Amino acid sequence: MSQTVDRALSILPLLAEGPADLGQVADRLGVHKSTALRLLRTLNEHGFVYRQSDQRYRLGARLFALAQEAMENLDIREIAHPHLVRLNEQCGHTVHLAVYEDDEVLYIDKVESRYPVRMYSRIGKPVAITVAAVAKLLLADLPEHERRAVTDKLDYPLYTSRSTPNAEAFLKELAKVREQGWATDLGGHEESINCVAAPVRGADGRVVAAMSVSAPNVVVTADELLTLLPLVRRTAEDISGEYSGRTTTKGTA
């Protein structure tokens, strides 16, 4: 039975490459055509494959419907939270998770610092979109025309001397973030607060969320915080792997 299931599942990646006829499927599986036909008929009955008029097979609509339903029911916060807690235990600083929704970047999870000096941020609260590291990652992943449309309609408050001053500067920063794959906010929102962030990606490689570690200068310097970047990126990769189904990782090393 396990061999039959294995063979049936092996058909799906083959058909993902494009339609294939019975002979091609049998050759790929290394089985007789009668065996391949029996597997294809079963998959066809369940809507996982579809037989075209030219007698070739392609992936069926039900497979796409199930994939879409599964993606819609994934809760990135639920998946990410254990990883955020583990990262917080390792570094001791505040950890955030944020998403981009309805033209705002919102915190959807937070694990508090173990230190007495803590950040004023709340779950559900929009971030300072023109300076926050998580916002830079989420906006940098947008197609270029969307990026330009968003940056053109934003206000650019000068929270500090390091705040992003205008759309041109913001676009330049987003291009840099897009290329390097991580982002920082070094005193852009509050002079005394620094932050380093990494993207969480879905199965298609697009950024679905961003996570960050933040700390005040009185606890750790900006340079010291930046040494945590490899750990932050590794945590984001672990979350991405679990969210997209690429890995079954149980935590960050």
Describe the structure.
There is one protein chain. The chain is built from ten helices and seven strands. The protein has 253 residues and is of the alpha+beta class. The strands form two sheets. A five-stranded antiparallel β-sheet has the order 4-3-7-6-5, sandwiched between helices. A two-stranded antiparallel ribbon has the order 1-2. A hairpin with a 5-residue loop joins strand 6 (193-201) and strand 7. Helix 7 (144-153) runs antiparallel to helix 8 (167-180). The protein starts with a helix and ends in a 9-residue tail after the last helix. The model is unreliable at 248-253 (pLDDT under 50).
Structural topology:
Layout: H1 2-16, H2 22-29, H3 33-45, E1 49-51, E2 57-59, H4 61-73, H5 76-91, E3 94-101, E4 104-111, H6 133-140, H7 144-153, H8 167-180, E5 183-186, E6 193-201, E7 207-216, H9 222-226, H10 229-244
Helix pairs in contact: 1-3, 2-3, 5-10, 6-8, 7-8
InterPro entries: GAF-like_dom_sf (IPR029016), HTH_MetabolicPath_Reg (IPR050707), Tscrpt_reg_IclR_C (IPR014757), Tscrpt_reg_IclR_N (IPR005471), WH-like_DNA-bd_sf (IPR036388), WH_DNA-bd_sf (IPR036390)
Pfam family, one: IclR_C
Domain IclR-ED: 62-245
